[in-house]
Specification:
CATH topology of the largest domain: Rossmann fold
Shape: globular
Main location: cytoplasm
Domain Glycerol-3-phosphate dehydrogenase NAD-dependent N-terminal: 24-175
Bound molecules: NADPH dihydro-nicotinamide-adenine-dinucleotide phosphate, 1,3-dihydroxyacetonephosphate
Strand order of the largest sheet: 3-2-1-4-5-6-7-8
Pathway: Membrane lipid metabolism; glycerophospholipid metabolism
Mean pLDDT: 94
Number of domains: 2
Radius of gyration: 20 Å
Order of helices and strands: EHEHEHEHEHEHEHEHHHHHHHHH
Binding site for NAD(+): 28-33, 156, 271
Low-confidence stretches: 3-10, 12-16
Structural class: alpha/beta
CATH architecture of the largest domain: 3-Layer(aba) Sandwich
Number of strands: 8
EC number: 1.1.1.94
Number of helices: 16
Strand content: 5-15%
Helix content: 40-55%
CATH class of the largest domain: Alpha Beta
């Protein structure tokens, strides 16, 4: 929400310095980047960087993104471009490329950037090769950027249609976080600020892996009791891992943690949950992935998550089972039997 399109530190009463926020660039024209462009374009100038020229053309000429966000008429003020230099001068940049491609996109963007520009990570995942969260990937490539994270329960299709949503905006510098939350909030999308950057980004990455497990339970017809059990024990894994990584408990219990876990595990609108469901129904991973163009982040994050958890000595049996299934080393029924037959223990 804006005051004549300009929001400054002084506006929120934290001193002299002012951060002029008037324009937003969004890097990534998939479902989420396009949905964010749509919702933000009601209040501000938005430019969307899209890699594929035919999608740039679709958005600018026909005001739709038929490949990634079909059925949504985009505001005419959503402008797409394939030119990274022209989006680098915005006051805020939202990074929404899939996790495994974010580094490559940032490398190309970096040479056009001005010092200190806030870059808000909206992607959810862990980089396979390095085991790094997206904020650390950003730190590698653009150390001078002001790093922030936007995460929470939010299906692109819901946000693009203007349905209500609430998310977490995290930035270590609380004043900047507050300013960004105010600037990016709208009547439809309410942002809560936090200074717990790792907590905010960890929830989104981990829940994608756990949602595959919830989908498997659904697809195998194991019932609603099993669904509640897998989500609850999945949350125990998320919480243990989060604490080991230095996340704050209240963040893990908030929108970007428990909130997004509940959303993603509970709906086949989720790509991760629906992929799990198809696995549970007996379809193979290659068949499922071959039939979809949308990114299913949990598939690519599972291995990195399990590696990190082992390194930190955090027990994550559900994430481990998902990883083994994805690698083709474990069948769905064996995984379920394995989880049920683990030694009994105290609930933690
Ligand atoms: N969809 C949702 O509801 C939500 C998604 N997210 C997160 O947002 C991120 C993006 O997801 P989403 O927008 O849904 O993605 P989609 O599956 O809708 O689209 C795929 C995106 O990946 C891009 N892409 C594919 N290959 C490359 C590459 N080699 N280099 C750069 N970009 C590439 C595509 O760009 P191109 O057009 O050029 O092919 C397109 O923007 C993910 O991390 C996801 O977890 C977060 C919240 C909600
Ligand atoms: O992150 C999401 C909702 O918050 C989207 O989940 P999927 O990627 O599983 O569709």
């Amino acid at each position: 929400m804006h005051h004549n399109g300009v929001l400054s530190f002084a506006d929120i009463g934290v001193g002299e310095a002012s951060l002029q926020l008037r324009s937003v660039s969004i890097i990534g024209g998939g479902a989420w980047g396009t949905a964010l462009a749509q919702t933000l374009s009601h209040d501000t100038v938005v430019t969307l960087w899209v890699r594929e020229p035919e999608i740039v053309e679709d958005i600018n000429a026909r005001h739709v993104n038929r490949v990634f966000l079909p059925g949504v008429d985009l505001n005419h003020s959503v402008h797409a471009t394939g030119d990274l230099a022209s989006v680098a001068t915005a006051d805020v940049i939202l990074a929404v490329a899939p996790a495994q491609h974010l580094r490559g996109v940032l490398v190309n963007l970096a040479r056009h950037l001005t010092n200190g520009v806030p870059i808000v990570i909206c992607s959810k995942g862990i980089e396979q090769e390095t085991g790094k969260f997206m904020g650390d990937v950003l730190e590698d490539i653009v150390p001078q950027a002001t790093r922030a994270v936007l995460s929470g329960p939010s299906f692109a299709a819901d946000v693009a249609r203007g349905l209500p949503s609430a998310l977490t905006l995290a930035c270590r510098n609380e004043a900047v976080g507050r300013a960004l939350a105010a600037f990016l909030s709208s009547r439809q999308m309410r942002l809560y600020w936090s200074s717990d950057v790792i907590g905010a980004e960890l929830g989104g990455a981990v829940k994608n892996v756990l949602a595959i497990a919830a989908g498997i339970v659904e697809g195998r017809g194991l019932g609603t009791s099993a669904h509640a059990a897998i989500v609850t024990r999945g949350f125990a894994e998320l919480r243990r891992f989060g604490e080991a990584m230095g996340a704050r408990p209240e963040t893990l219990l908030g929108l970007s943690g428990l909130g997004d876990l509940i959303l993603t595990c509970g709906s086949t609108q989720s790509r991760n949950m629906s992929l799990g469901r198809a696995l549970g129904e007996g379809r193979s991973l290659s068949e499922i992935l071959g039939a979809r163009s949308a990114v299913t982040e949990g598939v690519y994050t599972a291995a990195a998550l399990v590696r990190l958890a082992r390194k930190k000595n955090v027990e994550m049996p559900i994430a481990e089972a998902v990883h083994e299934i994805i690698e083709g080393r474990l069948g769905v029924d064996e995984a379920i039997t394995g989880l049920m037959q683990r030694p009994l223990k105290a609930e933690d």
